[in-house]
Amino acid sequence: MANMDIKLIKIPPIDLEWTEWYPWNRLEFDARSDSNGITPPKSPGVYEVRLIEIEQRLTIGKTSNLRRRVTQGLVKGTIEHSSGKVIREKEDTSKILIRWAKTDRPAAVEEELHKQHKIIFGNLPKYTRRT
Length: 131
Hints:
This protein is α+β, with helices and mostly antiparallel strands. Helix content is about 25%, strand content about 20%. It is built from 3 helices and 4 strands; from the N terminus they run βββααβα.
């Protein structure tokens, strides 16, 4: 076996400041032109989607640009999104809530959120295929 350097990696905790849960349809409108609209920041982060009456998540995702991924991909479908299309086809979007949190380490946070979801509910979110 080849000689391998082994290094201990310590990952510091990540504090998330979640937004409130917003109705899906409020993200269909641009807040710059419609007072009912909500516009996520252009920051990297994570997001969660759930039905109003159910705590289990429909999807949990990560992105380098929350506005683009959540608004254009997930909600509007103007860019590709791994679970957005199926959610729009199979769920009543008037009963869906979305929230997000900014973080400079979205991949690490998404992985941990998936892990926590599996511990609580026994599986990944309904429309999440893999971590």
